[in-house]
């Protein structure tokens, strides 16, 4: 480890020597921890990071006045649909996806570096339980979907196949996530096929360009956004690992979507058959004002335009069919070829412009007293995973139904939307509908049959509580053998053991 003198000299070159102002009064352990945190920071890179953060915050980019004239929806030939397509076409996509999975050419990559601050917890979001009858966490639901899609592909092609699970963590989430997986026996996945790696951390910066000291012995650091993926892939030789395994196609997604379909064979097959190097799942915007980015074209180039950059007048424009003209809501759910990711790490990443996030960052004052600010006081610089879309040679979008594939968990229940209750209801409503489609009947407390109709999104709990294990059904398939013509009380938890009993 570098000496204090070496670290101090490096910080002087970066103009950030204030980070050591309490070093002399620290005990040996905390002093060593602080020096270890500071040692990897390259002086020139640190100086430039702090300078760019302050400059970007002082001069936030103004929306391009001519953006509306340069904006276009994606052309129809670049867009597929999970629901608005002939059944035989959907089956063709699905079969191609299963074929690639059976050939061991598909991996999934989870973006799990963020903290659950808005959710009100201090542990990784993937460890969160939304209150399902089974008490499963997001991590467990996702692991079981991987196991099921491996099983389905293997059964179709008479082979054993593996979908490796790459998990990008951060300094905040790596330790707890690794411990959680070990405690739960990796949810019966082969640990060799679960690869965790850590994204870079960047110092939070004051408005005048000084890195923030969170504690006397700790710099305030933050993950570099989910767009930090591209540096992290290079830092940890992840793409080399994929190449050794024969992986050609990668499904990248965020941890907080309870309905996410990992290694979705329909999406994978659509992208592969279109020859895409980069793809994005999208959902139809709920309203012009919904605060989600829009997947569209600017100057003929595909990209995600943030909702704040689109004028209200443009957001309200209607297509000839009556729907929103710019309706492709981004849900951070992507397809990449490994070759494209290789180019992203080597060529595109340095060209990505960081985004400014102004946050409330705890710090110590000049006397060393800890302060929790009531107002934003710091800058965190982030890149986004979708920033590489403009570099794609053959980009496609794939529209899915929100009620089937998108219900994010971002906020505590005190918020109106995207909270544990809305996530739980979305999953239970989906499973209730799957059961009805498979021929199940549900009874109320008095033995009378309940209405056999799906619950509209946002309408509250479904008429009956039904949770179906991902190990039993990935997307509603194969349930008739257990449920057709049978009556059930509420709640029904259809796990592997219950399914085996019903089939006996």
TrEMBL record:
Biological process terms in GO annotation: UDP-N-acetylglucosamine biosynthetic process
Gene3D superfamilies: 2.10.10.100, Spore Coat Polysaccharide Biosynthesis Protein SpsA, Chain A (3.90.550.10)
GO molecular function: UDP-N-acetylglucosamine diphosphorylase activity
Pfam (any one): UDPGP
Keywords in alphabetical order: Nucleotidyltransferase, Transferase
UniProt xrefs under InterPro entries: Nucleotide-diphossugar_trans (IPR029044), UDP-sugar_pyrophosphorylase (IPR039741), UDPGP_fam (IPR002618)
Origin: domain of life: Eukaryota
Family the entry assigns: Belongs to the UDPGP type 1 family.
PANTHER family given in the database record: UDP- GLUCOSE PYROPHOSPHORYLASE (PTHR11952), UDP-N-ACETYLHEXOSAMINE PYROPHOSPHORYLASE-LIKE PROTEIN 1 (PTHR11952:SF6)
Protein name (Swiss-Prot/TrEMBL): UDP-N-acetylhexosamine pyrophosphorylase-like protein 1
Organism: Monodon monoceros
């Amino acid at each position: 480890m570098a000496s204090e003198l070496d670290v101090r000299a490096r910080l002087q070159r970066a103009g950030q020597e204030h980070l050591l102002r309490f070093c002399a009064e620290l005990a040996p352990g905390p002093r060593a921890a602080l020096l270890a945190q500071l040692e990897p920071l390259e002086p020139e890179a640190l100086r430039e990071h702090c300078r760019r953060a302050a400059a970007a915050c002082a001069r936030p980019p103004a929306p391009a006045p001519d953006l509306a004239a340069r904006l276009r929806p994606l052309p129809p030939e670049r867009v597929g649909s999970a629901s608005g397509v002939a059944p035989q076409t959907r089956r063709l996509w699905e079969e191609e996806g299963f074929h690639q999975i059976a050939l061991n050419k598909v991996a999934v990559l989870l973006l799990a570096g963020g903290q659950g601050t808005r959710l009100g917890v201090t542990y990784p979001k993937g460890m969160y339980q939304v209150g399902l009858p089974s008490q499963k966490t997001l991590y467990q639901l996702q692991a079981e979907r991987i196991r099921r899609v491996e099983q389905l592909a293997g059964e179709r092609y008479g082979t054993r196949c593996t979908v490796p699970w790459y998990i990008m963590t951060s300094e905040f989430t790596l330790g707890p996530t690794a411990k959680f997986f070990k405690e739960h026996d990796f949810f019966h996945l082969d640990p060799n096929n679960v690869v965790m790696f850590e994204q870079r951390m960047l110092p939070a910066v004051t408005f005048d360009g000084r890195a923030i000291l969170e504690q006397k012995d700790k710099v305030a650091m933050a993950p570099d956004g989910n767009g930090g993926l591209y540096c992290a892939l290079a830092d940890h030789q992840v793409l080399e690992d994929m190449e050794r395994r024969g992986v050609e196609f990668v499904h990248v997604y965020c941890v907080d979507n309870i309905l996410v379909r990992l290694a979705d064979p329909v999406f994978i097959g659509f992208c592969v058959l279109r020859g895409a190097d980069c793809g994005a799942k999208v959902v139809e915007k709920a309203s012009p004002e919904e605060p989600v980015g829009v997947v569209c074209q600017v100057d003929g180039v595909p990209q995600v335009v943030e909702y704040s950059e689109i004028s209200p007048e443009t957001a309200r424009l209607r297509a000839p069919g009556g729907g929103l003209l710019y309706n492709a809501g981004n849900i951070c759910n992507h397809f990449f070829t490994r070759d494209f990711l290789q180019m992203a790490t080597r060529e595109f990443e340095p060209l990505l412009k960081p985004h400014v996030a102004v946050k409330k960052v705890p710090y110590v004052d000049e006397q060393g007293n800890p302060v929790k600010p009531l107002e934003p006081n710091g800058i965190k610089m982030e890149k986004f995973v979708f920033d590489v879309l403009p570099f794609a040679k053959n980009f496609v979008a794939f529209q899915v139904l929100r009620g089937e594939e998108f219900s994010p968990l971002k906020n505590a229940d005190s918020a109106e939307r995207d909270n544990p209750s809305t996530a739980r209801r979305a999953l239970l409503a989906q499973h209730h509908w799957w059961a009805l489609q498979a021929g199940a009947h549900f009874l109320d407390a008095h033995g009378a049959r309940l209405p056999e109709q799906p619950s509209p999104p946002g309408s509250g709990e479904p008429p009956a509580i039904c949770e179906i294990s991902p190990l039993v059904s990935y997307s509603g398939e194969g349930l008739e053998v257990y449920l057709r013509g049978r009556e059930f009380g509420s709640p029904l938890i259809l796990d592997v053991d219950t399914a085996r009993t019903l089939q006996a």
